[in-house]
Task: structure prediction
Amino acid sequence: MEGKREIIFDRLVYSCVFEKHRGHEEFIPEHFLGFQLSGETHAFHADGNTVIPENTIVLVRKNQLIRTIKYPSKTGKYQFVSITLDKETLQQYAIENKIAVKKRYDGKQKLFFEPDDFLQNYFISLTPYLNKKKEATPRLADLKIREAIELLLQSNPDFKHILFDFSEPYKIDLEEFMNHNYMFNVSTASFAKLTGRSMSSFKRDFSKTFGTTPKQWLRDKRLDEAFYRIKHKKQKPADIYLDLGFENLSHFYFSFKQKFGLTTSEI
Result:
């Protein structure tokens, strides 16, 4: 049975699958609050891996690259619901409540926690929308976002340093970032934004740093890693091509032969 991913209203997303499912690489442009209703999510990001078990709430920060694998529970069902804490609502909330953040949050990526009664009941209150028994008006949707913000700050006041940091990603070390994130199959525009650069600045700095274009460097970097894993770790192409940012196996085989002059079986 196929899974589904539904946008219940513009900022509430419900995901349900019935077998192990690999999600697409995603650039996360806005903070979101998620609840693992059943099963578990394995999230892969630049800082490592995070497992989100059943009955856990996770606050995911904006401007990140994440890859997920969804595992159903023993009952055979995976369910995850997330609500986006969009910038416009957060800015308005900060103005109304006179909140100003002067420093960036420097904590680790791992931001999940056992839900308290308030957060647990908050997600229960979303059930009628998931079951399509009730339709949310734009005003009601906005109120649900604000309620999530209130409950997050109540559970941990330090979350204000995450939620109300409206600064753009600052210019970071390009070489270090790309060497940690080359395996994510996302657009060049996403890489540019995450390194704090415009597209023109990103391409210019990339050429100075690596002496080639982003597209060519990514292709070669991924293929070099593939060569190492196949030759020295005896891994199979079918098991690694997605992890290395290739969209399909036939494209991977073609690119590999083109670069090395050998097929994967010949090495």
